[in-house]
Design brief:
Layout: E1 5-12, E2 18-24, E3 30-37, E4 39-47, E5 56-61, E6 66-71, E7 79-82, E8 89-92, E9 98-102, E10 107-112, E11 118-123, E12 129-134, E13 140-145, E14 150-154, H1 155-159, E15 172-174, E16 181-186, E17 195-200, E18 204-209, E19 214-220, E20 225-230, E21 236-241, E22 245-250, E23 252-256, E24 262-266, E25 275-277, H2 285-289, E26 291-293, E27 298-303, E28 309-314, E29 319-323, E30 329-333, E31 340-348, H3 385-389, H4 414-427, H5 435-446, H6 452-523
Length: 524
Amino acid sequence: MLLRETILCAATPTTGPGAIAIHDLQTGSTLASFKQTNAAPHSTAVVLSQDGQGGFLLAAQHDKSILNVYNFQKDQVNLKIVLPEKLSCIAIDHSGEFCAGGTSQGRIYLWEVASGVLFNSWDAHYRQVTVLRFTHDGVALLSGSEDSGVGVWSVSRLLDDDMTSDLPLPYCVLSDHTLPVTDIACGIGAFPNCRVLSSSVDHSVKLWDISSQTLLTTFQFPQPISCLAWDLTERMFFAASKDGSIHQMNLFRQKEDKSGGHVIEAIGGAGVTDIIRVGDEEQTKAQKRRLISVGEPVVSITISLTSALLLAGTATGIIHIYDIPSHQLLRSLSTHKGFSITHLATMLKPPDLIGHVSLSIGAGHSSESSIPVKPVAPFQRMRDAKSREAHDITMILPVQDNVSSFFAPHTEHKLMLLYGMIYRSTKTKGNVYTAEALLRDHDFFVRPVGSAGQDAVSLQSKVNELETEVARLREQLGKAKGVNDMMWETVVQKVVGHGKEKESDKQGAGAEDERRRKRGRTDS
């Protein structure tokens, strides 16, 4: 099944090794587990399988200067990369070309994944870098720090050979926070025509417009915000705190116009002076309805690909799944109880996942062939001009046949990724993945989360009801056929009998006339 949404989470214990696990979103079952990792928040990154190449995972160890590399086809560490120093956070662009790492001293490193070349390293902040994010098109890198600043860096400037000896200058600095920055969320759109959310210990979440380099709105909360999740359509975002509360903030609201109708208008956008406060004492009923109380410290949150579910990972290792429209708790996964969920994301199940490797898209393909993994080279610890000028990149060209349709292409939008797969799967000729299978998988993908056991029981009860209904209808059909046959025989008998009576009457009348004629002739 291609359209199967999964949960990717990193579980870190207080002592000892942790793991990165992949769970099925519908059933909660564990599909894969990658051992021997101990990653802090914002220290796990993933590249999806695409363009005929298998994806991989990166996990920076918070207690040592080591970066673990995993691929979906193996549950053990595929490569251990020795780093120049311990990394406090990492980020990788969506295409998997460049990886950035931040340190506790405020330094940022930028590597090319395929060659391992260190393109740049610079002092971006004067305190620890807490979070790194690439924009959706990979053109810019955003960094948040304990110095309360958010730096926006142009990747092309960081890769420019003519600027290697100069200190990189940021595209802009977003500096309205007063305490350490905890998380950054990038909106959809090509840089710089995109918006950015940043959260901080100062109880605020700020909405920025990158093209104008201005602050649009400040959302003030009663608790420090630890992590963010932004809806792909940018209609709302969720802000979670360590006290177990998750606030839903709608960026649009319905307003009554002068004619008595209702219009939708955006919230905020007035600039530095525009502050929307969410206070405990001043909360309205609507604000209380938008509050989710988890009851445990929330470390990471994410929104499902269908934007229907909110997933919250806690410091106790529980993953709670909420229905966004109703805020109802649908399920809690306690597989990692006793750990801390430092990373949480949703994605389609990788086609090259452990035990599920399959290239049999068309007839004749071997299902046991391994998918080539996107190459990852050991990262350089020091900048080397010679290796930079003459570096070699290992590249696997995408297969130009039906196999390429098995992997979703890279897009800016997760849902575009999904629908791109749907389109190409249905349009590719000779593809075993038929339209019927696509619709069946899509139904499984978008149906609400429920208990597998309850689904099986309800399905069996429905089957029994349908079988009883079919038997009853067959019995009624038999009775109707019997009545119809009886009516038909009765009508036919009456028609035939009536015809015979008429014929006998005619024959009797003819014989009487003949006798009368004969009598007349005799009398004459």
